[in-house]
Amino acid sequence: MENQLIASFLDLIHHHPFSEITIATITSHADTTRTYFYQFFSSKADIAQAALFNVLEEILANFSKTFKFPANPNPDNTLTAVQFISEHKQEIKMMLSIQNKEIDLQKIFQSKLEAVIKANLALYRGTPSLNVDYFALTFSTSMAATINWLLQDETSITDESASSLINATIFRGLIAVL
Question: Of 97, 151, 154, 166, whose Cβ has the fewest other Cβ atoms within 10 Å?
């Protein structure tokens, strides 16, 4: 049922601004109750965050696979993540645009990406923690900027070219830092 609530929220966000969506609207659309909503989420901002992570989970999974073997990053994982971004462009744009005093999903996404990178790089015991911290912050900032760039309507780069660019610039930096 949690997924049904998220799906209802995502459907509503396609048709209404975040500020106009209420918990009552979400529960009515999902054909459930407010009590049931609060079993999973504490607020509208909480479901928005869950929806973003639901949509972006695959991106994080593929980028994190790249860090399993940083000396030899797998470009296929990057391409899969870029293709996912392309396929879900409008939905991701809507989710990342939700920013108000309650929530800044773009900042939350960048923090989540940074944590995934740190967790994967921590597996390499010879890497100084300062290098891991620096790279995780730099890479997450670069990836957030890259994702925003890929989401622009006027970006006409192919998925393969974008993946190649990411691998050539960002991952080359990874190897140098580690």
Answer: 154
